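Our consortium's second objective concerns turning raw sequence data into structural hypotheses that experimental partners can test. To show how far this objective has progressed, the report includes one record in full. It was chosen at random from the queue rather than selected for favorable results. The single chain below, 127 residues long, was entered without modification.
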Amino acid sequence: MTPREKEAKEQEKAAQQAGDQAAQAVKDETGVGEKPPSDPEQLREEIAENREELGETVEALAEKADVKAQLQEQVDERKEQLRGAQEQAKTKVGETTEQAKQRPVPIAAAAAAILGGLILLRLIRRR
């Protein structure tokens, strides 16, 4: 046997071992490939558990696939956020209005100063 044939045979053996190890890992993790229980009651229990898991999986997949329901949920969340922001804005406007009623002169003076500044800027830009 040539060195090249020996190397090929070793690689084939290593690949077979890796495949066996992977198959064993899948068997250990999933239980696939194990001998089914001989007790009918235990077998019924396993079937019931598998059906329950399958039902949960189907429900989860159906929920993920229901784009219309997901969009409606997002719309409802956004509406609730906007309602909260609206309430905050109303409260802030009410507070500001109340402050303006309590101190009308400083606010009027500030408004006049801003207006005067804008007029001055406009005149300067025209030149």
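The partners drew two points from this record. Helices lie at 3-30, 40-65, 67-102, 104-126. Residues 69 and 91 are 33 Å apart (CA to CA). Both points have been shared with the crystallography group to help prioritize constructs.
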